[in-house]
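Before the break, one more example. Copy the sequence into your notebook; we will annotate it together after we see the structure.
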Amino acid sequence: MKFLAFSDVHQDLEAIRKLIERADEVDFLVCAGDISTFGTGLERSCAELAKANKEIFIIPGNSERPEILLEICKKYNFKFIHGKSERIGNYNFVGIGGSLPTPFFTPYEISESEFKRLLSSFLNLNKIVLVTHNPPYKTKLDHLLGMHTGSKSIRDFIESADVEICICGHIHEHAGEEDFVKKTKVINAGKKGVVIEL
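Here is what the structure looks like once it is written out:
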């Protein structure tokens, strides 16, 4: 299977149109959150993304309230996978949206304990494709202003479960970059997106 993963377009309609242009080469799309800016432009961005005419799996970033994104997903027939797993081929796609608290008081910020609670349901799955907005702790992808800002709970899950790959976003400065947690590749998809083949 081949899919296009992206994150953090923040209502940039031109970036969404460029993603749509690449949709023909993949089986489906995966959004790792922050399609809006603090919730602004959410409906318009989703309406534009729907023009891809592909199945779209999506989680909220820290810019989207889950309950609001869920209602819009129903309208456009997107697959809302926050706190859920979706079997696609031989893989289990697990989605966990939101971010750890930020200095900006964004719409969907959660604690490490909440990340741990959400992830605990999926420990026994195999061949996991983990889709998170917040990157895992202590990688190249969560390094910002001299600190590691990622989630320890997400990292612990990757180290404990059968995670084939982790797709994340959130830290714009590392868009398109990748690193490893043990043998698991972690990719910040960014607004330009990355094509992943499994």
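The chain has one domain: 2-197. The chain has a mean pLDDT of 97. Try to locate both features in your own notes.
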